Amino acid sequence: MISPFNDEYFMKQALAEAKYAFDKEEVPVGAVIVVKNQIIARAHNQTELLTDVTAHAEMIALTSASSALGSKYLPDAKLYVTLEPCMMCSGAMFWSQMGHVIFGAADEKRGFMRYGKELLHPKTKLSYGIMEKESQDLLKEFFQKRRK
């Protein structure tokens, strides 16, 4: 049986969150956390709205998922995020023991991969490049709009 709930489906959900951030003039990054093909948390960047440098989509999604499950550990969860997480977010994912991290676009300047996959928990699986172009295009459009 073919399931409609695959990596692309969930990354589209994260991209919808990123577009929501874009419309609110936030850096367009979106995230969803999934357990057993069910979205348990959705988030987008809110650093401007909350005047909080830690209000990244991943951080908000982690807090929401932990609350939904009643646990600070998320070994059975998958995080879909449109942009490669930064070191702060990868640290939070490490401590949550996130089961699988899937990101769209790479972030060569601020992404955690620059420092190595070891920033994630040793049991965390990693995938990337899912809907990379769509994620990159949204980010490029956002920053081009800000420069005008």
Features:
alpha/beta, 148 residues, single chain, five-stranded mixed sheet, 5 strands, 20% strand
Detailed description of the structure:
The protein has helices at 7-23, 47-50, 57-69, 87-96, 132-147, and strands at residues 30-35, 38-44, 78-83, 100-105, 125-128. By secondary structure, the protein is of the alpha/beta class. The protein has a five-stranded mixed beta sheet. Strand 1 and strand 2 (38-44) form a beta hairpin. Helix 1 (7-23) packs parallel to helix 5 (132-147). 39% of the residues are buried.
Outline:
With 148 residues, this protein is α/β, with parallel strands linked by helices.
Specify Rg, calculated over alpha carbons. 14 Å
Sum up the overall morphology in one term: globular
Q: Quote the average pLDDT.
A: 95
Beta-strand percent range: 15-25%
Secondary structure class reads alpha/beta
* Structure annotation, total helices: 5
The CA-CA distance between the termini, in Å, is 49 Å
Largest sheet: 5 strands, mixed
Strand order of the largest sheet: 2-1-3-4-5
Low-pLDDT segments: none
* Helicity range: 40-55%
SSE sequence, one letter per element: HEEHHEHEEH
Strand count: 5
